[in-house]
Amino acid sequence: MRSLRFALLATVLAASTAFASPTDPKSGVEYVTLAQPQPVQATGKKVEVIEFFMYHCPHCNALEPQLEQWVKKQGDNIVFKRVHLPSSGPNDPEAHLRLTLEALGKAEEFQPKVFKAWHVDRLRLNTDAAIIDWASKNGLDRNKFLDAWNSFGVTTKLRRLPQITSDYKVDSVPTIIIDGKYQTSPALVYNSVKTQNEPALFGATLQVMDALVAKAAKSK
Question: What InterPro entries does the record point to (predicted)?
Fold first, then answer.
């Protein structure tokens, strides 16, 4: 009887994914719908897209070139934001770096530079001291960087990150949130495409994101 139950479960799961595809994604397969949608800052017909990522994550680094092209392609259809997952808690140094760069208006300019430091130069930017030293050696004024790093605004946002991550039900990266209510990721999209080839998997993930942006835009 136990084997029969497992066989029936396998049949149900197979049926649920049989008609799933990146261009016609299904909730529970290539994406999940949050039980409690989160507020969005995008206005009008624009759709908010948030990438949860970590600088030291190799998959986030690998996704970056394709994601950048996707954001450019979407243009004025979306408002794109990034949130650094605070993997070590409310004082996570990498998340602190991201928020400091945002405060300085340098976040997107330095996104590829930080990825390069981690994944090409093999620098472990995972302590306050290492990050501050790296920033001062890479074109950022040390005093201005420290002022932003220690500012009330940055430290307040840093303390709130674990709650934000929890609200969006994010427990791995890269994870994408569309319009505050749809969550997708390469890990979820793998359910239908079944490929471990990263460029192909990322391409399929971006197709799911296309479909979810279109779905969200129709409801506005």
Answer: DSBA-like_thioredoxin_dom (IPR001853), DsbA/DsbL (IPR023205), Thiol_disulfide_DsbA (IPR050824), Thioredoxin-like_sf (IPR036249), Thioredoxin_domain (IPR013766)
User: 3 in a domain, yes or no?
Assistant: no
What residues does 81 pair with on adjacent strands? 50
User: How would you classify the pairing of strands 31-33 and 47-53?
Assistant: unpaired
pLDDT of residue 4: 32
Question: What CATH number is associated with residue 179?
Answer: 3.40.30.10
Q: Tokens at residue 41, please?
A: 């800052």
Q: ∠9-15-16 over CA atoms, to 5°?
A: 90
Q: CA separation (Å) from 21 to 24, 140, 191? A: 5, 45, 10
Q: Cis omega before residue 174 (within 30°)?
A: yes
Domain that holds residue 62: 21-85+170-220
How long is the chain? 220
Distance from C-alpha of 102 to C-alpha of 109, rounded to nearest angstrom: 10
- CB-CB contact of 86 with 97 (8 Å): no
pLDDT tens sequence across 139-148: 999 999 999 9
Q: How many domains does the chain have?
A: 2
Q: What is the pTM of this model?
A: 0.89
DSSP 37: P
